[in-house]
């Protein structure tokens, strides 16, 4: 039995009528840019994230870029972040005119190691970006403490709806940072039918700045206080996301059940390192990522068996050719580099059947002769 890494058709089949109705409502209104669906989605995401303000934008990459701009990051500044993340995190820093400063990760969670942040701060440091990788929040309170008063952006592209217990209180992804950023890329737990993104904040001044930045620096039509961007979330995507949002919690719970099923099945396979979830965290498992010493051989074996898998990410950002100008060498972020050699993500989407899970498990166990 073939098992894909992700099956969006299976999800669509369960919500098709609601999504089509939502889309047709926008088509009938013929109002496609911003408008009521976007405002309603912003209110819903703000509520979910326990923040005062949410601002839709064109995609998750723009969300980071606009967040940096709103914080005044520009030419000559430095921004500290992790090298083990999707390219957009580092690319947005570069495109804001700043210099990415990469620090190594916690090898258990793959998130930025807070203890590495403070030593990297210089007079030029303007902000820190913590990434919530694979659906698990970074230790945001520890990163903020290590940042020594610098603003922290939480790149929560993979973690909408995830939470973390901080001082006895449940903190949602995006809530505790100066600005949190989300992506609605189709493969995300809450994915659109195209690109989309959102920024969240508790700060009214940052809210106003982000609202201007997404619409060419304007809050009043044809009057531009700053030079901004054309980065608006369109009404069709907002309608899709609003139709899907009521299902997000149950979808994430199903991913956690699938992850637990895998954990139990691989418990007696010492060659397979199953995901570590910080006890303070509730992960939404955007990915179920194992560590194996024979990663490439295992992936080839799974492909032969018809099992989908992927490597997130095969080359850390500090070693990417486009960042050669930064002067990093192999060995400077050893945990990120080791993770890039060992990680492999398996199917974990909510609609997986028990038979499909068993197929994946049998293929992995079979590779190790179990």
Automatic annotation (TrEMBL):
<dbReference type="InterPro" id="IPR000653">
    <property type="entry name" value="DegT/StrS_aminotransferase"/>
</dbReference>
<feature type="modified residue" description="N6-(pyridoxal phosphate)lysine">
    <location>
        <position position="188"/>
    </location>
</feature>
<dbReference type="GO" id="GO:0000271">
    <property type="term" value="P:polysaccharide biosynthetic process"/>
</dbReference>
<dbReference type="GO" id="GO:0008483">
    <property type="term" value="F:transaminase activity"/>
</dbReference>
<feature type="active site" description="Proton acceptor">
    <location>
        <position position="188"/>
    </location>
</feature>
<dbReference type="InterPro" id="IPR015421">
    <property type="entry name" value="PyrdxlP-dep_Trfase_major"/>
</dbReference>
<dbReference type="GO" id="GO:0030170">
    <property type="term" value="F:pyridoxal phosphate binding"/>
</dbReference>
<dbReference type="Pfam" id="PF01041">
    <property type="entry name" value="DegT_DnrJ_EryC1"/>
</dbReference>
<protein>
    <submittedName>
        <fullName>Pleiotropic regulatory protein</fullName>
    </submittedName>
</protein>
<dbReference type="InterPro" id="IPR015424">
    <property type="entry name" value="PyrdxlP-dep_Trfase"/>
</dbReference>
<comment type="similarity">
    <text>Belongs to the DegT/DnrJ/EryC1 family.</text>
</comment>
<keyword id="KW-0663">Pyridoxal phosphate</keyword>
<dbReference type="InterPro" id="IPR015422">
    <property type="entry name" value="PyrdxlP-dep_Trfase_small"/>
</dbReference>
């Amino acid at each position: 039995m073939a098992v894909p890494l992700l099956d969006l058709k299976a999800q669509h089949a369960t919500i098709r009528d609601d999504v089509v109705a939502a889309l047709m409502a926008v088509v009938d209104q013929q109002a496609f840019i911003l408008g009521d669906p976007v405002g309603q989605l912003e209110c819903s995401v703000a509520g979910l994230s326990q923040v005062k303000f949410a601002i839709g934008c064109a995609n998750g990459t723009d969300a980071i870029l606009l967040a940096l701009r709103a914080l005044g990051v520009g030419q000559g500044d430095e921004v500290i972040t992790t090298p083990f993340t999707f390219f957009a995190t580092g690319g947005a820093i570069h495109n804001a005119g700043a210099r990415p400063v990469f620090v190594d990760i916690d090898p258990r969670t793959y998130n930025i190691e807070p203890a590495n942040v403070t030593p990297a701060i210089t007079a030029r440091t303007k902000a820190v970006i913590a990434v919530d990788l694979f659906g698990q929040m970074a230790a945001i309170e520890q990163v903020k403490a290590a940042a020594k008063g610098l603003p922290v952006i939480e790149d929560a592209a993979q973690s909408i709806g995830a939470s973390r217990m901080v001082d006895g209180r449940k903190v949602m992804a995006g809530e505790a940072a100066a600005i949190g950023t989300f992506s609605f890329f189709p493969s995300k737990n809450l994915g659109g039918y195209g690109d989309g993104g959102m920024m969240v904040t508790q700060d009214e001044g940052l809210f106003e700045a982000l609202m201007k930045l997404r619409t060419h620096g304007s809050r009043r039509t044809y009057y531009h206080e700053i030079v901004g961007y054309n980065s608006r979330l369109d009404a069709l995507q907002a309608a899709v996301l609003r139709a899907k949002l009521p299902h997000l919690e149950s979808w994430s719970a199903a991913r956690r059940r699938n992850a637990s099923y895998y954990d139990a099945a691989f418990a007696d396979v010492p060659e397979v390192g199953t995901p570590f979830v910080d006890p303070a965290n509730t992960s939404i498992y955007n990915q179920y990522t194992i560590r194996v010493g024979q990663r490439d051989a295992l992936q080839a074996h799974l492909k032969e068996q018809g099992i989908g898998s992927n490597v997130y990410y095969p080359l850390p950002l500090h070693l990417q050719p486009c960042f050669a100008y930064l002067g990093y060498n192999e060995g400077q972020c050893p945990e990120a580099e080791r993770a890039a050699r060992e990680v492999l993500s398996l199917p974990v989407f909510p609609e997986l059947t028990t038979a499909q899970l068993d197929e994946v498990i049998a293929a992995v166990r079979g590779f190790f002769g179990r």
